[in-house]
Amino acid sequence: MGKTSTVSSWLCCPCRCLFCGLLSCIFSVLATILVIAGVVVLALYLLFRPHLIQATVASADLIDFTLTPSTWILRYNLSVALSVRNPNSRIAIHYQSVVAEAYYQGQGFARADLPDFYQDTGETTVLPLPFAGDHPLEGGVAAAGFRKEAIDHASFSVDIKLSAKMKLKVWAFRVPGPKPRVDCPLNIHRRNASAPAADGPQEFHPIECRVWF
């Protein structure tokens, strides 16, 4: 019995050594690939120094923003000019599936699908965001918040959010980029749609938006 066990162990030993050597080789190759990839990524980062895009609400005009008491239907007419800048000096950006949404009291009430656009290095693009229509507000809390803002100062807290897909152009190469999220909290005064055109919108100070990936 002892001899049989010794012979079996002796026969299995070469296989075991071959398996261990194969695993060691695979791990060595994987480690080398990871190290090389890390060095390449670090080199590209140091070379191109990618920066987050910058977004600013340049203007906003709230012509109509009224709530029907019996049905809680929100009627709105809002125009926003959103300035988007590519601060990178070596990376151009192609924006796709661009969507802008407007929120009030945490509820989305309007959406605008925008065309794709391209930004060269250091370029700024102004996106016109027109929102007009009507939408029901859900829950008495939102309606109560609307009445309070309308009575207190006739200005309303509206959030403008933008999302898109990116393709980055580095030299002649195009690579998929991150999906940016833009959030612009606004406090806008409502003006009467029947007011004379000469009155125009109230003075608006540009507002920096939060951008993250």
From TrEMBL:
Q: How does it sit in the membrane?
A: Single-pass membrane protein
Stretches assigned to the Late embryogenesis abundant protein LEA-2 subgroup domain: 82-171
Q: Does the keyword Membrane apply?
A: yes
In the UniProt record, does the keyword Transmembrane helix occur?
yes
Compartment annotation: Membrane
Where in the sequence is the signal peptide annotated? none
| Keywords, in A-Z order | Membrane, Transmembrane, Transmembrane helix
User: InterPro entries annotated for this entry?
Assistant: LEA_2, NDR1-like
Q: Name one GO cellular component term.
A: plasma membrane
Q: Name one GO biological process term.
A: defense response to other organism
Protein name, UniProt field: Late embryogenesis abundant protein LEA-2 subgroup domain-containing protein
